Amino acid sequence: MTADRTGIVYNASILEHFHIVLFGLLTGLLATALIPILDSSQSGEPIIITPPATLTLNSITLPTTTPAPWRLCVSSSVKRPRLYQIPSGERGGMHELS
After folding, report:
1. Are 85 and 93 in contact (CB under 8 A)?
2. What distance in Å separates the CA atoms of residue 4 and residue 91, rounded to the nearest whole number?
3. pTM value?
4. Which segments within the chain are labelled E, that is strand?
């Protein structure tokens, strides 16, 4: 152990490890800064950004209707699983199939 002029006691081996870590950190930062400078090769072509095409009513595909009748299978955590049929044009009436 060594002491400086202020009387603070330091462990010499800790200071040696600190200097090694500090040297490694600074070397890494310097290498990171120099890589883009030394690598001046440009490869590829520049990217050209074009605006999107305008949409017209002719280019939009409209949804199609679902063929009637719908069939609804109610199962899982119910007491009596059933298959229901919803006729075309109905808004709430269901007919039991099984």
Report:
1. no
2. 91
3. 0.32
4. 2-3, 9-10, 70-74, 82-86, 95-96
- Are 83 and 69 spatial neighbours (Cβ–Cβ below 8 Å)? no
Residue with tokens 């690598």: 39
Q: Which is nearest to 86 in space by CA: 73, 76, 40, 43?
A: 73
With cut-offs at 50, 70 and 90, classify the pLDDT of residue 80: confident
| Spatial CA neighbour of 93 closest among 68, 76, 66 | 68
Question: How far apart are alpha carbons 41 and 78 in whole angstroms?
Answer: 69
pLDDT for res 13: 73
Q: Match 């280019």 to its residue by tokens.
A: 59
Tokens of 39: 């690598």
For residue 72, list its beta bridge partners.
Answer: 84
Every domain of the chain and the residues it spans: 2-38, 68-98
Enter the tokens of residue 56: 């017209």
Cβ 98 vs Cβ 84: under 8 Å: no
Q: How far apart are CA 20 and CA 60, in angstroms?
A: 66
